[in-house]
Specification:
With about 280 residues, the protein is mostly beta strands. The protein contains four helices and 18 strands. A nine-stranded mixed beta sheet has the order 3-2-1-13-10-9-16-4-5, covered by helices on one side. It has a five-stranded mixed beta sheet with strand order 7-18-17-14-15, with no helix packed on it. A two-stranded parallel ribbon has the order 6-12.
Length: about 280
């Protein structure tokens, strides 16, 4: 299934994308796409619905982040060998973990703001993993059982804040609008191998990133298992699993986002995002 949330910011309703690409309303079935609605049993109940009987959502509504009430927004750094090389950093022996503020989350096509004082706002297409049930001390061989599904994430980053302002990377990762998520949450049964997904990102029509989850240093199962050794993961938590090469920091000369730029990014089977860059509000 492809689950989504549509409507005005802060007033989104749950929906489902049918086989013809039509949005069907789920608001009479579930309150939202979050927490308990992401369990295996809850998702099975949605699969059993007669989709053709669900109300059609007319027009082209705004699409919100595909999961709401995110408890933790966890990110993995330097998780692609070729991206680590372009960043001039060694591959880590264990996953590098950092957090983005959940206040950074926006819809997949909402505007991205350049924060005040920014000189190096960058892009990163990433595979997002949405947890469906509590994971605590789970083994790698059953870690994916705890995943509800997958989505596209643009891990927007301010490199000067991230690398030169002291402290943790979170300073450069958490500005408002730095976490576009969606358009859909694609349930894990539709993605049999999360390690074989092509991904890309373009700015103003120029392709900067083109890669595949095949080149992840630590695969999704290992990431989920590893995180669960340090913290419990709850339903609705989101993990952003790293980016392939082609970020602005890796260009010669370095290239960063500016107001008026337009990004397009996507992952095979998970949909496409499009964002216009604007000055901070």
């Amino acid at each position: 299934m492809k689950l989504l949330r549509y409507g005005l910011s802060g007033r989104e309703k749950p929906g489902l994308l049918d086989a013809e690409g039509v949005i069907r309303d789920l608001s009479n079935i579930i309150d939202d796409i979050k927490g308990d609605s992401l369990s295996d049993a809850a998702l099975d109940r949605l699969r059993a619905l007669d989709v053709s009987a669900l109300p059609v959502v007319e027009g082209t509504p705004r699409i919100g982040a595909c999961v709401s009430d995110v408890g933790k927004f966890i990110c993995i750094g330097l998780n692609y060998a070729d991206h680590a090389a372009e960043s001039g950093m060694a591959l880590p022996e264990e996953p590098v973990i950092f957090f983005k503020a959940t206040s950074a989350i926006i819809g997949p096509n909402d505007a991205v703001e350049i924060p005040r004082g920014s000189v190096k706002t960058d892009w990163e297409v990433e595979l997002g993993v949405v947890i469906g049930k509590t994971a605590k001390y789970v083994r790698k061989d059953n870690a994916l059982d705890h995943v509800a599904g997958y989505c596209v994430i643009n891990d927007i980053s301010e490199r000067d804040f991230q690398l030169h302002r002291s402290g943790q990377w979170v300073k450069g990762k958490s500005a408002d609008t730095f976490g576009p998520i969606g358009p859909w949450l694609v349930t894990r049964d539709e993605i049999p191998d999360p390690q074989d997904l092509a991904m890309y990102l373009e700015v103003n029509g120029r392709r900067y990133q083109g890669g595949s989850t095949r080149t992840m240093h630590f695969d999704v199962a290992m990431v989920v298992s590893h995180l669960s050794q340090f913290m419990s993961l709850q339903a609705g938590d989101v993990i952003s699993t790293g980016t392939p090469p082609g970020v602005g920091m890796g260009q010669t000369p370095e290239t960063y986002l500016k107001p008026g730029d337009e990004m397009e990014l996507g992952i095979a089977g998970l949909g496409v995002q499009r964002q216009r860059v604007i000055d901070s509000q």
